[in-house]
Amino acid sequence: MAHVSAAERRPQLIKAAISLMAREGVAAGSTRAIAAELGVAQATVHYTFGTKEELYRAVMEQLTRDLVDQVTRAAPADASFEETVGTLAEEFWRTVLDQPETHQLLTELSMFALRTPLLKEALQSHYSEVLTVTTQLVEGAAERAGRRLAQPAEMIARFFLAGFDGLTMQHLSLPDEEAERVCLRALIAAVLAMA
């Protein structure tokens, strides 16, 4: 059997971990189960990541990158501030509707990380990156539209993300398509009023 380097194996293990944990939950994400998901020896996981926590960190980083990339690609280049905020919120919400298991996994990993000292930094990094990107999107939309913001862009981004996290949790816990549409429109209106 040909040797596969750790650099090549790393994305395979991350993908296997995401697949397994999205399907069965974080509690099912043992190194043994993740190795079995990919069809490799458990030692391969430890050789590639060192610890389960490092693998979980890599999973959080990958999920964050994937979601951020999806949303930033949707940012319109020549729309009004209002249209841009609406488009970004709708695109972000589409990721929840199309990939609920990804958002559930991120939520589970976040709760797990709060009680795992080795993962607290990864959790802070996740939220920091999402906040930074959201702030940049708000600033960029305002600059393109020649709009002066009434509040700092980071405060607007924090407000939006707090509302969005709540909507996501409601969708995962007690989905109601009509109520979610109304709440998303209200969140967009509140963000625009704050801006």
Question: Which architecture of the largest domain would the CATH scheme give at its second level?
Answer: Orthogonal Bundle
Q: What is the domain tally?
A: 2
H and E string? HHHHHHHHH
Helix count from the secondary structure assignment: 9
Strand content: under 5%
The whole-number mean of residue pLDDT values reads 93
Q: Write the CATH homologous superfamily of the largest domain.
A: Tetracycline Repressor, domain 2
Query: Would you identify the regions where 5 or more consecutive residues have pLDDT less than 50?
Result: none
Fill in the CATH topology of the largest domain: Tetracycline Repressor, domain 2
Number of strands: 0
Task: Report the helical percentage.
Answer: over 70%
Shape: elongated
Through-space gap between termini = 59 Å
How would a textbook summarize the main sheet? none
Structural class: mainly alpha
Radius of gyration: 19 Å
Q: Determine and state the CATH class of the largest domain.
A: Mainly Alpha
DNA-binding region: 30-49
Domain HTH tetR-type: 7-67
GO molecular function: DNA-binding transcription factor activity; transcription cis-regulatory region binding
InterPro entries: Homeodomain-like_sf, HTH-type_TetR-like_transc_reg, HTH_TetR, Tet_transcr_reg_TetR-rel_C_sf, TetR_C_31
